[in-house]
Design a protein that fits this description.
Domain HTH cro/C1-type: 13-67
Protein name: HTH-type transcriptional regulator / antitoxin HipB
Number of domains: 1
GO molecular function: DNA binding
CATH architecture: Orthogonal Bundle
Number of strands: 0
Helix content: 40-55%
Largest sheet: none
Strand content: under 5%
Number of helices: 5
Shape: globular
CATH superfamily: lambda repressor-like DNA-binding domains
Pfam families: HTH_31 (PF13560)
């Protein structure tokens, strides 16, 4: 997944939450954040605290993998392409 902005991240969190069948309240409790904070993150609010973002991603069973832009073709990180090149995961 290519994430180039806070809005992209918020939409991805929202989509993953829905995919897992979680409510905002349920995910907020799992991640140890407020429902209001999660709502702001999903809306793309730019003041989201990184530590809370990482806790929320962990609650969704996601991780962040930072890759230098110069190692990938194009101007941004295309995580879908990177994952295809890495092959299938074990889990």
């Amino acid at each position: 997944m290519r994430i180039g902005s806070v809005r992209d991240l918020g939409l991805y969190v929202r989509d993953r939450r829905r995919e897992l069948g979680l409510t905002q309240t349920g995910l907020a409790a799992e991640a140890g954040v407020s429902r209001r904070w999660l709502s702001d993150l999903e809306a793309g609010k730019e003041s989201a605290e990184v530590g809370l973002v990482l806790r929320t991603l962990a609650a969704l069973n996601l991780m962040v993998d930072a890759v230098p832009l110069e190692t990938l073709p194009g101007t941004g990180v295309d995580l879908d392409d990177l994952l295809r090149r890495l092959g299938p995961s074990d889990g």
